[in-house]
Amino acid sequence: MKFKDMQYERIPVEKIAEEATALIKELKDAKNFSDADATFIKNENLQKHVETMANLTHIRHSINTEDKFYEEEENYWNNASPRIQEFKQEWIKTLLASPFKRNFEEKYGSIVFINAEMDLKTFSPEIIPDLQKENELVTAYEKLLASAQIPFEGKSYTISQISPFKNDKDDSRRLSAWKAEGQWYKDNQQELDSLYDELVALRTKMGKKLGYKDFTELGYYRMQRNCYDKKDVEKFREAVQKYLVPLAAKVYEKQAKRLGKSYPLSFSDAAMEFRSGNPKPAGTPDEIVAAGKKFYDWLSPETSEFFNHMIQDELMDLLSTKGKQGGGYCTSIPDYKTPFIFANFNGTMHDIDVITHEAGHAFAAYLNRDRVPFATIWPGMEACEVHSMSMEFFGEAFSEAFFGKDARKYNYSHLAGALTFIPYGTMVDHFQHIVYENPDLSPTERHAEWKKLVQIYQPWLKLDGEIPFYSEGEGWQRQHHIYSMPFYYIDYCLAQTVALEFWNKIQKDQKDAWKHYMDYTKQGGSVVFTELLKNAGMESPFEASCLRGICETAAKYLSDYDLTGIE
Q: N or C terminus of the chain with fewer C-beta within 10 Å?
C-alpha cells in the first residue's frame, strides 16, 4: 500500500488501557500455554497498531512541522506514550511472572525476557509527568531547528539547505556559510541552553526517582545495553584515542597539504577535502533513486525486491522542503509490515548515503518483517547501525553510477570519513557521560568541557575564534541526539567499527562479505549485539585488536590510494 493511503486514527488512551488491562487479566488466567500464547499474539497486535498510529503521526509531522493537524497529533502521542508505557510495564511484569515463561522462551527466544527485565528498570508511574515533559522539550528543540531561516547571500535557508554552501570550494564563500549557520545558533543560544538545562535536570530527577545515583545508569537501561556496560565503552574509548585519533590526524594533515592550508585546520577548511570540491552526486534526486534501484537489483534478489517495494509504494520522502524537520531516519509501520525512509537531499554526497545508509536500516526491517514478537524485527541501536553503515560500503561498487567523475574521490573520502567520524562520535558519548555525571554544570561549564574534548578527539581542528559558535565549545548543540536520545551515539561508533570490518572483507571478496552481512542481518533482533556478531563470524569492537587491525589496514589503503589528477 502506498504511504499516502495508509489510514491514521487517534486511539484514545482509555481504549488502549481497557484492551491492555483485559489482556493482562487474560494472561494471568491462562490455563495452558496455548491460551497464554494466543493472548500474547493479541497483545502483539494491539502494540503494533498503537505503534503504527504513533509512527504515522511522527512521519507526517516530520515531513511538515507546519501541518497543524499532525502537530496536535504529535503532541497527543507525546503525552499518551508515557501513560501507555505504564500498561506495557504491567504486561511485562505479568509475562515475567507467567508459569509459561519457559515455554515463551523456547518459542520466541530469551531476548524478549532480557529486554523486558531491562524495561522494568526504566519506568514507574511516578515519572509519567516527567516523561511527558521530556517529550515536550525534545519536540520544542526539533521545532526550533526546523524553523531555522539562515540569512545567506540575500536569501534564507534551512539548516539542511545551508549545508552545501558549507562545502563550497570557494574559501570565502564556504567560511561565510559556516559563519551564517553559527550565527543562527548563537542568536538562539539562550533557548538552546535553556532547553538542555531542563532536559538534564529532568532526566537526573527521573534517575533519582527510580533509585539511581544519576541519569547515566537509567540512560544505559533505556538504550537496552544488554551485553556491555560503561566499562566496556570506556575500554573502546581508550582504543579510539590510542589507534584512531593518530590515524585521523594523518588524514587531516594530508588534507591540509592538498588544500595548501596550515595544520591544524579551521572548521571551515576541515570540511573541504579537495581543492576541486568534495564529491557530489551525479544526477537529480530521481536519477539518484534510479541508480539506487540498479545497485539493489545487482546486489541480491532480496535487496531488489525490497527497494522496488520502497519505490512502488512511495515509502521515501527525500527532498528538503520548508517546514520539514532536519536530518534523516528510517522507521517501521508495523501494521503494514514496511519500513519508511525520511531524508533531506541537499546536493551533497550525503544524499547517496541516504540511499545506502537509511536503506540499509530499511532492508533489515523488511527482511525481518514477519518476526514474532515484532520487537525482534530490530536489534539494539548499535546493531541496527551496522546494517546501515556497512551497506554504505557495499554501495561503493556503484560509485560511478552515484558520483560519475567523482567516484574515485568519493571512495577515498568515504573511508577517510568513516575513520575520522569515530573520534567525533566517541567524543559525543564522552561528553554526555560528563554532563549526566555532573548535572549541575552551567551552560558555560558544559561548553568548556566540550572544548576540552575537541582538543583530545579532534586535534586537527583550530579553535581560533573565527567562528565563535564552534571555537567556544558550543558545536555540540547541533547534534540532535544529545537532546533527543541521550547515550545514543556510541552506537554509531561501535557500528562503524564493524562496518569497517565489512569494508575489509569487501576488499578481499565481495560475495563472501555479503554472505557475512546476510548472516548478520537475517537474525534481526533475535539475540544480543555481541551474539549477532559471533554468529556472523565478525569480531567484537570491544576487543582492542579489532580497532588496531582496522587502522593498520586502512592506513595502508589510504597511503597507497591513487589520487593522481585529483586536486
A: C
Q: Where are the beta strands (DSSP E) in 76-195?
A: 150-152, 155-157
Place of cell 521530556: 134
Tell me the CA distances in angstroms from 512 to 343, 455, 502, 515, 562, one per residue in order.
31, 40, 10, 5, 26
Pairing of β 329-333 and β 338-345: antiparallel
Chain centre distance of CA 223: 12
CB neighbour list of residue 336: distance below 8 Å, 6 or more residues apart = 1, 6, 52
User: How confident is the model over 448-466, as pLDDT tens digits?
Assistant: 999 999 999 999 999 988 9
Which residue is associated with the grid cell 536519477? 287
Question: Around Cβ 373, how many Cβ atoms within 10 Å?
Answer: 18
Helices (H), 188-300: 189-209, 215-222, 230-239, 245-259, 267-270, 285-299
Q: Give buried/exposed letters for 85-98 (b at 16+ CB in 10 A, else e).
A: bbbbbebbebbeeb
Kindly give the pairing relationship between strand 316-319 and strand 155-157.
Answer: unpaired
For residues 281 and 343, what is the distance between their CA atoms, to the nearest angstrom? 15
Instruction: Provide the whole-model pTM.
Output: 0.92
Helix (H, G, I), strand (E, B) or coil at 181: helix
In the chain, DSSP finds a helix count (H) and a strand count (E) of 27, 5
Half-sphere exposure of 108 (CA within 13 A, CB side): 25
Q: Which three cell numbers stand for residue 555?
A: 592506513
* Mean pLDDT of the 178-200 span: 98
Pairwise CA distance, residues 156 & 453, whole Å: 33
Q: Radius of gyration of the chain from Cα atoms?
A: 23
State the Cα–Cα distance between residues 112 and 104, nearest whole angstrom: 9
Q: Are the C-beta atoms of residues 410 and 273 closer than 8 Å to each other?
A: no
* DSSP H or E stretch at residue 329: strand 329-333
Candidates 456, 390, 394; CA nearest to 428 is: 456
Residue 462 near residue 264, CB atoms below 8 Å = yes
Measured between alpha carbons, how far is 140 from 127 in angstroms, rounded to an integer? 20
List pLDDT tens digits, range 7-39. 999 999 999 999 999 999 999 999 999 999 999
